[in-house]
Write a structure and sequence with these properties.
two-stranded antiparallel sheet, 6% strand, 125 residues, mainly alpha, 5 helices
């Protein structure tokens, strides 16, 4: 059976498999049955992708939402997991695009929050 060639990466950089192993299961990260119910309720109330509606990652369009995104990621910003004002119904394509945005400066997320008419984390109401 053929094998894949070795992956070359800089010294100290972990492989995707190592990262996945160390981050824990979805349940360990807080995605419990309570989250499943809350997410389903969010999708029922907001069935369209908010990012698509506002053209956040391309031309505006109507697209069905398939998951609930934490606009401010809980692994980077503590205390936002159950804050529903930052839950966004979205499609898988927009979720992937927003995840790449999360790796950048917080100002990029804040600018997108303003564009989507979401509250900015830490701003006065």
């Amino acid at each position: 059976m053929p094998t894949l060639p070795p992956t070359l990466r800089p010294v100290g950089q972990r492989s995707p498999r190592e990262v996945d192993r160390d981050r824990g299961s979805a349940r360990e990260r807080g995605y419990t049955t309570a989250w499943d119910k809350a997410s389903k309720a969010r999708l029922a109330a907001h069935p369209l992708c908010l990012y698509c509606e506002h053209g956040a990652f391309g031309a505006p369009r109507a697209s069905a939402a398939t998951l609930t995104d934490h606009f401010y990621p809980q692994r980077r910003f503590s205390g936002v997991f159950w804050r529903s004002e930052w839950w966004v119904s979205c499609c898988a394509d927009c979720h992937a695009a927003k995840q790449s945005l999360e790796r950048g400066p917080r100002s990029a997320l804040d600018a997108l929050a303003v564009r989507l008419r979401l509250p900015v984390l830490g701003a006065a109401p």
